[in-house]
Write a structure and sequence with these properties.
Blueprint (H helix, E strand, L loop, with lengths): L1 H15 L42 E2 L7 E3 L6 E9 L5 E8 L5 H10 L5 H4 L1 E7 L2 E14 L7 E14 L5 E9 H6 L1 H9 L2 E2 L1
Antiparallel strand pairs: 1-9, 2-3, 3-4, 4-8, 5-6, 6-7, 7-8
Length: 202
């Protein structure tokens, strides 16, 4: 009887496999705020990731003359730039992130979801490549809630989001995000695209 119980236990353990994997074999990821989980940057977007974070891409860029570089306010930010000031007097920033997990499709879908239910019908996604650097660009419009203001979230009824996923030839990715008042972001769209176009492998 004891042998039967031991055999059953071994079979059950084999079926469970690595406790770091889900039943489908996908790596488990700690939810935001769980012990050992990285602190999420609200501008990076929230939600569960089904893939581990990739190393940041090694790319160089030229900063548009109208943008002002400032010190990154979180460890997830590789760089941040002050683009303008909105009607409420708040800074509108273009942020370069490194080490965001999840697939490109997951990140694009999450960003579109931040722009309201109707954004998915009008969002535009484009693809380009220069000097081996692959870029996926998103443009979405709709209401956006700025969660960078704990306890006092700011909702922008008419907002634009410009975002991009940048992949270097040797691997590694960066995510670039500019979101805020439609008036400010639409005016910065040309500079945003020049910023993306300037990206080259280091």
């Amino acid at each position: 009887m004891r042998r039967i119980l031991l055999a059953a236990t071994l079979v059950a353990l084999a079926a469970c496999g690595d406790d770091k994997k889900s039943l489908s074999g996908v790596d488990k990821v700690a939810p935001p705020g769980a012990p050992g989980a990285p602190m999420a940057d609200p501008h990076a977007g929230t939600g569960m990731m089904n893939a581990p974070a990739a190393a940041p891409a090694q790319v160089a860029w030229a900063v548009p003359s109208s943008w002002k570089q400032s010190t990154p306010s979180s460890g997830m930010r590789v760089a941040q730039f002050d683009v303008g000031t909105d009607e409420a007097g708040d800074k509108v920033q273009c942020i370069v992130f490194g080490g965001i997990g999840g697939s490109d499709d997951q990140n694009i879908s999450r960003w579109v979801g931040q722009m309201g239910a109707a954004a998915k019908d009008s969002a535009v996604v484009g693809h380009s490549e220069q000097a081996g650097v692959k870029i996926t660009r998103l443009e979405a419009h709709g209401p956006y809630t700025d969660t960078m203001r704990p306890g006092d979230p700011k909702t922008i009824a008419a907002a634009t989001m410009l975002a991009a996923i940048v992949e270097a030839p040797g691997g590694g990715k960066l995510q670039v995000k500019l979101v805020g008042s439609k008036t400010i972001v639409d005016a910065a769209a040309k500079a945003f695209d020049e910023f993306l176009a300037s990206m080259k492998p280091k």
